[in-house]
Amino acid sequence: MQNLQKASSFYKGGKGFSVSGCKREIPALSESEKGKTRVLFVHPLMALGGGERVTRDLLAGLNRERFVADMAVVCRNPLRPNLFENELRAVADHLWDIPALAGSLFNVEFFERLLQTRQYHQIFWIGGNSYLHFLRPVLHRKCWKRSTYVIHNDWPEFLADAAQNQDICDDFIAVCDYIREKLHAWEGVPKENVTVLYNGIHTEIFDASLYPTATYRPSSGLSRDDFVVSYTTRFDAEKHPEYFLQMAEELSDLPQIKFILAGDGVLRETIRQKIDAAGLANRIFLPGMIYDVPQLLSESDLYCHCVRYEAWGLSIMEALSMGLPAVVTNVGGIPEFFEDGVHGRMIPYDEQTPHRAAEAIREIFEMPDREKYREVNRARAEQFSVERMVASYERYLSNLP
């Protein structure tokens, strides 16, 4: 419970825990560790995506009377090398740094010594790129009980990468049924080799009643009467932040509809320039990377998330937990928890998506009873709490060979 509280502090604007350097020395197993199930999460990057957040919450939540929960990071995010590191270190029993430098035999040998010394019962390979190819020289000498490839992304190339690693993985975890079906249909992975374990969010933090005082509206010059549409995202092509310029233009007859796009990424400056050029700086606001997402959502009236790929959609679930209606695309695993007309509006992903999203926003804005979403969406989100996610992984680990 204490570790989960440390993990959830991230959303409240916590500054993390200042400890320098990941571990480079490998201690022998202590007597208490020998009597527990030892779990290692291996992650390609220290970034700030859904996979990192879920891994952090699993590290924090696993029962320490039964489990030792370690993490190894194979390489650093070149754009934000230290992002998220303190939060991970605070909740992991051990955090190992294994940078994937080209041709670095030392790092490969270090990883092999780590596996031999710690004798893990379970390894979770967090999918996302082909970093396992870097580690293959040592993975043929198996010194663990089971290894599982965890897939948080539904990009076709990521599914193909997962399938290519079947020879070093005992099975797969998918975060939605959609990924399980696609792994089978596209890559021929037997369905019985894929377990679906849904991701979870901190519903105790994403509770609108905890945030009575506005901060983002005043700082952006927005009034209580403005209708705020928010989006928390990475600013890259996959997440389509450019859609909001078209939405704002199509909703020009409703100037009280304003947009707050929070996040950072390679396209942020480009989007800012386009907003200025289109004269939309008084309609679309870019606060940058924020660490108090619930605060922003508590000041919002609607959440809009219209993308081409989305395995699960943690940010959508966070918005539902805050009681917000949402406008989303019917992609990936989103239809597994979101029902059109019940939780907001779900639209197709195609060339008409920005137009359809604008019309859906207009529809919800004009609804006299849009408060009906609040209790329904909150109740839906509570079915996908972090506690339930951790419990599902603990049940999975209880079936170790």
Description:
By secondary structure, the chain is an alpha/beta fold. It is built from 16 helices and 13 strands. Strands 3-2-1-4-5-6-7 form a 7-stranded parallel β-sheet, sandwiched between helices. Helix 7 (156-164) crosses helix 8. The model is unreliable at 10-23 (pLDDT under 50).
Q: How would you summarize what this structure contains?
A:
The chain has helices at residues 2-8, 31-34, 50-61, 85-91, 105-118, 131-139, 156-164, 177-187, 216-220, 243-250, 268-277, 293-298, 314-321, 353-365, 372-381, 386-397; strands at 37-43, 67-73, 94-97, 122-126, 146-151, 171-174, 194-196, 227-234, 257-264, 284-288, 302-305, 326-329, 344-347. With 401 residues, the chain is α/β, with parallel strands linked by helices.
Rounded to the nearest angstrom, the radius of gyration is 22 Å
Low-confidence stretches: 10-23
Principal-axes geometry comes out as: elongated
Oligomer: single chain
Question: Could you give the count of β-strands?
Answer: 13
Give the CA-CA distance, first to last residue.
Answer: 28 Å
Count of individual helical segments: 16
The largest pleated sheet is described as: 7 strands, parallel
